[in-house]
Design a protein that fits this description.
7-stranded antiparallel β-sheet, 16 helices, about 30% helix, binds flavin mononucleotide
Length: about 500
Amino acid sequence: MHPHVLDWENKPLLFKIYPTLEVTRLPRDFHQTGRAALAAIADSESAPDKEAIPDLDTLAQLLFFSAGVIRSKKYAQGETFFRAASCTGALYEIELYVVCCDLPAKDQKPGAVPALPAGVYHFGAAEFGLRQLRAGDYRKVLVDVTGAEPAIAHAPIIIICTGTYWRNAWKYHSRTYRHFGWDNGTILANLLAMASAENLPARVVTGFVDSDVNALLGLDTKREVAFSIASLGHTKPEPPANPALSALELPTVPYSSQEVDYPAMRKMHSASSLDSAAEVTSWRGKTYTRTAPVPKGTVIPLVPLDESRTSKDTIEQVISRRGSTRQFSRDSITFQQLSTMLDHSTRGIPADFLNQSGGYLNDLYLIVNNVVGLAAGTYFYRWQEKTLELLKTGEFRDKAGYLGLEQQIPADAAVNVYFLADLKKILECYGNRGYRAVQLEAGILGGKLYLAAYAQKLGCSGLTFYDDDVISFFSPHARGKSAIFLIALGRSALRINR
Ligand SMILES: Cc1cc2nc3c(=O)[nH]c(=O)nc-3n(C[C@H](O)[C@H](O)[C@H](O)COP(=O)(O)O)c2cc1C
């Protein structure tokens, strides 16, 4: 309803740059882990407790395949640097920071000078390097602010993901707050898969004292805020007491000549913030459990490809070939391919807001346009049983195009996967923090679906949608839920042959 024009002159920079800090370049000689992408995304193990301290090469590999620049393209308005994970509008508003103990070089003997000294670092995707914000081991701060979350207490490396409002609000205004969850989620999907491929335990942690994490990074919280944390690796000793925490006042290069403030987002963030370790401790451990309603329609079991017949393309190959499909061909995919994507993407996420035995917040609703072996129509995914419940048969391409913000992509795709959630119940369970968790979970699942599609050389794209119309369309089944996220799957009009 509001006139919406993009001010190209004022488009924000795609990178955060600290002009006064020297950059330490990361090693780029990446290796193939040999782990099939489909296996890596399906892994939900988070806690083998043997010593696993990543070396600097491994950290570099994890950062590159999660948030590194994998290709660039020139446009009339400038050049875009595409990253390993998809992101709304290719605006890349999620920044990564590394908090770590001393990290060794590859094959380094114990006692040698560390390749990366303990510190707090900003990951500079532009230069593929790290800038040190603080020298010393500050992991204890994160143990304290997460209420001694065990995965954090024993992590040699902790990644903090932040969202910068203006970097995405330039295009999407206040809706950016939802994009934080989605765009952070796709990065975490890659990070979890890469950690699995490197045999490193990893866990997503969303319960932390916001102000303390922001202070550790010296963030200007009117502009940038911590959104999620991830632990990587395992080390038995807990971190030592940290050095004193002074205020950081580090200049950064302005993103635009002027920024527009959208106070609704700051209000939202503040309303979902946790203020003390005690609050975090009482928040953690809440898990949302429910059972799917008794099916009313035909229930069809998934038929994933036999493991021996699935793609063995490695996670590095698949992330390198991933992109968002700009045009789908309208050709069919098979029910086996769809089943393989759903099955591998929904085997659980190691996260503090989910229980280990496969909990989830988002329900998946499908519009099937063209899948061999599955009638066109709408379906509800019965997550625990791995079945699809038929809601309505029929040809819904036009409707899918309309619901997906009147774009061609959802109309041409073979399948649209909508993520819908009962926000009322989720907020009752988790408080306002549940809003962040549900968006983040959708982003992680969406990120996994991207990888599952590209592993099979199929196309995929995240999409935006008309919230309320989506709910009406899937009602009465979806009555009372909210639309969270949308992924289109199908055959790309261009061959994916990398
Ligand atoms: C949550 C999400 C929503 C998106 N929505 C749309 C959309 O509505 N229309 C579209 O053409 N692309 C959409 N995209 C694709 C992005 O434009 C794309 O990820 C970005 O340009 C980066 O390109 P790449 O994914 O090919 O690396 C979306 C991506 C994500 C992650």
